[in-house]
Each structure stands twice: as C-alpha cells, then as structure tokens.
Here is the input.
Amino acid sequence: MTRRGTEPDDAARVGPTTPETARDTVPKRENAGESPAVVVTTIRPQITDDHMSQSYERGLIEDFSRWREFEAGMWAWIFHKFTGWVLIGYLFTHIAVLSTAIPAAGASEATIAAGGDVYTQTIVSLEELLLVRILEVGLLAVAVFHMLNGARLLLVDLGIGLGAQDRSFYASLILTGAITVASVPTFIAGAF
Amino acid sequence: MARRYSSFREGGTAWLLQRITAVFLLVVLAFHFFLLHFVHHADEVSFLASSARMENLSYYSLMILFLVTATLHGVNGVYNALINQGVTGRKRTAIKWTLVAASVVLLVQGIRTANAWAGIGLY
Here is the structure.
C-alpha cells in the first residue's frame, strides 16, 4: 500500500477498522494556508504486518508512554478491554471451581446433607481466605465498570449522549467506586 | 463530534452479536451478582442450596443461556480485540480455533455442572 502523507486526515480514512484515533498521531501541517510549494510533507510510519500497532494506521496508540495524551474515550476503551480480559479469565476459573459439583453429585445423601461433599467443602474453604474475599471485591469492581461502561457504549452506538461521552465515562468510574465501596461489608462479612 | 474508540468494526456481525449479548448480560449478570452475594451469601454456599435453585427449570434454562451468552460475548471480545491489534494470517486462524476449542470446553463443563446440580443424569 502506498500513500501520500500530505493530508492530516489521511489516516482516519484508511483501513476498515480504523479508529479515528489515528488523527492524533499525524503531525499537523505547519504551513497550512501557505503556498503549496512550501507544504511540509509529513513523515509517516511504514505499514507492515510486523508492527501490529501500525497495521491499522492509527499510530502507536498501544504505546503507553503516550498516556498523558489520552483523552477520556481512550481511557474508557483501555479500561473496557482490561476488564473484559479479567472477566473472561474469571469465567473459566469460575466454571472450573464450580465443576467440583460434578464429583460431589456422586456423594451419599448423608454427606451432601452434612455439607461434606467436595463442592461445598471447596467453596467454603475458599471463602474462608481473606485474599479470596478481597479478590471478589476486585471482581465486583471490574464487572460493575464493564457493565456501566458497556451500557454507555450501547447508548453511544445508538447515538444517545454523544456530546456527553467524557462525562458519562467519569460517571461510570465514580458509580463503580461507589457501588464497590458500598458492597465491601457484604463481601467481607464472616471473613474474620 | 466525539471520537469512536472500539475494537469492533461498526455495523459488522461481530459488532451486532456483541451488542445483543451485552444487553442480555447486563440484566442477567446484575441478577446473578445480586442473588448470589446479596440475597444469599457466597460463604453459605452448599451443594444442597445450589441444587435447589438449579432444579427449577426456569432458573436452569436462564443459567444455561447465561453461560452461552457470556462465553460468546467474552470470546468474541477477545477475538476482535486481537484482530484489532493487527493479528493476521496463520496466527489469526490459530487464535480463532483455540478460542472455539476453549469455548466448547467451557460450555460442556458448564452444562455438566448445571446437570449435576439439577439431578439430570447426563453429566
């Protein structure tokens, strides 16, 4: 793919899944408005599949050293991805732990009634650990943020509240904090 | 005009699937958290109590649908995030089939667990 790099908006028009963030990465043309003879040609990165953050021509947005330049929408996207990874990881762990119900189902009725089966014992022993309780609070925070920000994304995709994206992201963060703090007593109860 | 940050191509099938499953998950995940942490408490879990819930056909069906939807949403999210990062070719194919295999394992194991609770012989 060859392109001229003379237009600041070039990047935003290239590639089927190009987020508009690419605009951030293109140096501004300093001599805009002057004679075309003195237009400064911007230097753009080569497009190769070897450099994953360049292959979609959105610049080095995976370069976290640029974090000071990130705007609210970028943080929302990063947090949404991070919480998503945590949640899918947890789903596998959750099912693995709950699977102890499979051998437990073969226990005698008396054992099950007394709570001596492997499923009950596994969950009860895990819940006795303070670390597990703390991780559960963390999981709640991660899930609540992903849900609130996800609801925000659904609204944005429907064209609702486009002008308040920044504020709705901050509101998601504050609400996540409030719900998490309010849930701490319930999640920690009986751990000591 | 606000900028759009997403790992999905707007209007695509994967994008639509992610939105539909999201709406369902918003409601059911909130219900799941509320029921199992606030109505009941995680440290009071027992096989008997879990069985009692799962023997109710509506609850069993909802939980199976919850498992399928969460798996789809999670795996679709991971796959699209990786594609968006620029994974292509063989790597992309390998990731796709690894995720498909992982999903199958998760679904089978989840359904077996639900069946064990519900007293359905197939587990």
